[in-house]
Amino acid sequence: MQSNKQAQREEIEVDLLCEGIFRHYGFDFRQYARGSLKRRIKNLMDLEGLATISALQELVLHDKQMMERFILNLSINVTAMFRDPGMFAAFRKEVVPLLKTYPSIRIWHAGCASGEEAFSMAILLEEEGLLGKSKIYATDINEVMIKKAKTGIFPMEVVPEYTGNYQKAGGSQSFSHYYTAKYDYARLRPELLKHIVFSKHNLVTDHSFNEFNVIFCRNVMIYFNSQLQSQVHQLMYDSLYRFGILVLGTKESVQFTGQQASYKELDHTFRIYQRCS
User: Fold this and answer.
1) Which terminus of the chain is less hemmed in, N or C, by CB atoms within 10 Å?
2) Where is the CheR-type methyltransferase domain (predicted)?
3) Burial class (CB in 10 A: 0-12, 13-18, 19+), 57
4) What is the CATH number of the domain that holds 165?
């Protein structure tokens, strides 16, 4: 069990690590939820065989590849196609009729990891006859994940799970219609991928880069402290057209934010909101 002095020293080390990364690389982890941040730091220390956070800091500041591993470890990469299929079913019911009234559609998936949520949206829009007038922007802080997402490749071993999710989400085709299989991997059809733009974007330090009809920011802000959550909520609000749609994770909400009065709740279970002012 840690002594008070050890705990205090560890807090100082975490502060110095985050400050050093911010000043040297421009990535700002200083307002991430402390418990989650420390767990991920310690996990990386175990993987690298390091005894102290200070030792990790030295490597991170002097070795760019170590910094890339740090980012990869801190990024939230748990994803699947049509993950939370009920959300996609609700999206079809509540949001698609609105999108059908627009001449063009821009959708932003913030924190896209390896791209499965954006792949899913491309399939949904294709089935609803909307993909031809849509552009999907998928962004993440993690360049390794962005590079992987651009390939549109996923392992065949996950296809049964993805197929089940797709069916529960209201899919109208055979899921195999949307990919080609080769050996142990599947690749999303190129005509779906061409409607997705993958790029690096840091929700903490970067600004709004467009206006959108829909923004997905699911299961990202739970890892931020309240101040950073407030900052990102403002970014989402500034990036939405009036009557645009914001989709959060099931443990996230616009309640008690500065923008709460500007949204109408369309689906409570799956946290789908419409900006109304």
Assistant:
1) N
2) 2-276
3) buried
4) 3.40.50.150
